Amino acid sequence: xxxxxxxxxxxxxxxxxxxxxxxxxxxxxxxxxxxxxxxxxxxxxxxxxxxxxxxxxxxxxxxxxxxxxxxxxxxxxxxxxxxxxxxxxxxxxxxxxxxxxxxxxxxxxxxxxxxxxxxxxxxxxxxxxxxxxxxxxxxxxxxxxxxxxxxxxxxxxxxxxxxxxxxxxxxxxxxxxxxxxxxxxxxxxxxxxxxxxxxxxxxxxxxxxxxxxxx
Length: 215
Ligand SMILES: Nc1ncnc2c1ncn2[C@@H]1O[C@H](COP(=O)(O)OP(=O)(O)OP(=O)(O)O)[C@@H](O)[C@H]1O
What we know:
Elements: E1 26-31, H1 37-44, E2 56-57, E3 60-61, H2 67-77, E4 78-82, H3 93-98, H4 110-120, H5 135-147, E5 153-157, H6 165-182, E6 185-190, E7 201-206, E8 209-214
Parallel strand pairs: 1-6, 1-7, 4-5, 5-6
Antiparallel strand pairs: 2-3, 7-8
Bound molecules: adenosine-5'-triphosphate.
Residues 5, 13, 31, 33-39 line the site of adenosine-5'-triphosphate (ATP).
């Protein structure tokens, strides 16, 4: 696949790239600012179509599916964690965590929210608004929200980019451990190649080129 943001320019944010993500693996893509990491993550996560090429998910071309099918996959099969948390400020922590379950139509049980909040250590904050939480706590809520639907894949874009080193280690260790425990595939982009202790695959992105560094 490739990505050009403008048909009028020759600049490729993503040069011809091929990537296979195996189920249950921890994948880290590191690189400098502007190297194309978010571009690749957005394409893989069904958020932005490539200019050329396709993204296959369970033998289906993601971007050939209709809008409803694509939303179902993003909402039910994928989880997302972003640098700036993207919590809804007007909603309590409890309601933020339960948001993705609106897609599923499966009855949500209160104990599921409490259990995941406990796992992330934010159970004392369930009735609070996000603005009253520290950055680290907000990101833990975002991780809980990403996990609540038991997704197959979590896409994380600089999940610790806005955190101090203590919270950065806490969030990255929890993400790695929980994904491994739950057999969730993780695709994470970061500028810090050592963020995740033992990824299955470590890639570097440089000027729109993806290179496998370590398996
Ligand atoms: N929506 C857009 N329109 C035009 N150009 C874009 C757009 N998004 C990204 N770019 C350009 O594509 C290139 C890759 O950007 P991208 O955001 O993917 O890099 P990145 O490695 O994620 O950087 P950062 O760590 O700063 O987020 C950059 O040159 C950027 O300016």
